[in-house]
UniProtKB/TrEMBL annotation:
Topology within the bilayer: Multi-pass membrane protein
Keywords (A to Z) from UniProt: Cell membrane, G-protein coupled receptor, Membrane, Receptor, Transducer, Transmembrane, Transmembrane helix
Organism domain of life: Eukaryota
Statement: the UniProt record of this protein carries the keyword Transmembrane helix: yes
Subcellular location: Cell membrane
Transmembrane regions listed in the UniProt entry: 12-33, 40-63, 83-102, 122-143, 169-193, 249-269, 289-308
Organism: Turnix velox
Protein name: GPRX protein
Gene: Gprx
Coiled coil: none
Length: 387
């Protein structure tokens, strides 16, 4: 039974590594080959960090944590390299996810200001900030390591291999910077995104009622928002399909935040307990399990932050058809009336609205579709009116 468990664990680790390699590579290739998708700079950076983790960190993690490689002995330099890669890639991945969340929120609430201020220089500065902060945390982990224990090799590399007072301080700082603060940011940002998407859904439901009575047209976003927010009529009840779409939007929000918590909460909780509790040292089966639960984030991120985007999926389908020499035929483009509330919410999350004209490659829409699209063009409540 023990041998079977070891084999299943080894195969699971290899499967996660291969999934991370393929999924991150696909997303990076699609973004780099499509000029209009290169605005997803931080998504591409996240996939690049996860790809580096799958190439360098996860194979070393398999050798370090699996009992199948118990006879492997590491030198001090090799252990330091493994700790460096572990802390650096984990920090870079989590900090990138936090910046993606803030970027999406800023795009939704201040879209015009975002288009002006979100430049290549700012994106590069964000990437540099991520790596500088990650390297500083890594250097803090390796300070005074190992601490005079006279050892020249180890059979298992862990940050607790050389105990010391600064190790406890490092784990606390590492947990606060790379888990507690990002969790607060992600939760607050996506709750704000859901609130705006919910208000937009209610406003979209009120558009057919307003279309019945002709009103003077106003091109001012501020005036439109004022008209809607100052109405004395109660908000219209959501139709069943809109209520279902709202529930799907909540499910999407729960999945994105829940995926982050499920992957990283056990990892940081285990290390905090191991560093604070007296007489306990990390290692063994528990550390292996929580480490690979955390590493699974490298394989899941390209799906949640890349392939969940409809634009990236469409470009991937075009690339696949071109690789297999299949005729493109008629492109499938969902109109606004065909898109569900869930898809609109995902467009909010993935910055997939107003920045890329995906209908350009489609057959020109019929007058009926144009009329439907005109009717559903509504301002997003919560946006700050800007010149």
């Amino acid at each position: 039974q023990s041998i079977a468990q070891e084999v299943v664990g080894l195969l699971s680790m290899i499967l996660l590594m291969l999934t991370a390699l393929v999924a991150n590579t696909v997303v990076i290739v699609v973004i780099l080959r499509t000029p209009l998708l290169r605005k997803f700079i931080f998504v591409c950076h996240l996939c690049a960090v996860d790809l580096l983790s799958a190439i360098f960190l996860m194979p070393l993690g398999i050798i370090s944590t699996s009992s199948c490689f118990n006879r492997v002995i590491y030198s001090i330099a090799e252990c330091q390299a493994l700790i460096f890669l572990n802390v650096c890639f984990i920090s870079a991945s989590i900090l990138t996810i936090s910046i993606i969340s803030v970027e999406r929120y800023y795009y939704i609430v201040h879209p015009m200001r975002y288009e002006v201020k979100m430049t290549i220089r700012l994106a590069v500065a964000g990437v540099i900030f991520i790596w500088v902060k990650s390297v500083l945390l890594t250097v803090l982990a390796l300070v005074d390591w190992p601490q005079g224990n006279g050892a020249t090799s180890a059979s298992r590399c862990t940050v607790y291999w050389s105990p010391g007072a600064h190790k406890k301080a490092f784990v606390i700082i590492f947990s606060i910077v790379c888990f507690v603060l990002p969790t607060i940011i992600i939760f607050a940002v996506y709750c704000g995104v859901y609130r705006v998407a919910r208000m937009a859904s209610l406003q979209q439901a009120s558009v057919p009622a307003q279309a019945a009575a002709p009103q003077p047209r106003s091109n001012s976003i501020a005036s439109q928002v004022t008209i809607i927010t100052t109405r004395n009529e109660p908000l219209p009840r959501l139709m069943p399909e809109r209520l279902l779409g709202s529930n799907k939007a909540i499910l999407t929000l729960v999945l994105i935040v829940g995926q982050f918590l499920c992957c990283w909460l056990p990892f940081f909780a285990f290390h905090l307990h191991s560093s604070i509790a007296a007489g306990t040292v990390g290692g063994g089966h528990g550390e292996m399990v929580v480490t690979w639960i955390a590493y699974s984030s490298f394989a899941i991120n390209p799906f949640f932050y890349g392939l969940l985007n409809r634009q990236i999926r469409e470009e991937l389908a075009r690339l696949r058809r071109s690789c297999f020499n299949r005729p493109l035929g008629q492109e499938i483009c969902l109109s606004v009336t065909e898109a569900s509330v869930q898809e609109n919410f995902l467009q909010f999350l993935q910055r997939a609205t107003s920045t890329l004209e995906t209908h350009a490659s489609c057959i020109s829409p019929s007058p009926r579709n144009r009329l439907d699209q005109t009717k559903t063009a509504f301002p997003i409540p919560g946006q700050v009116p800007e010149e």
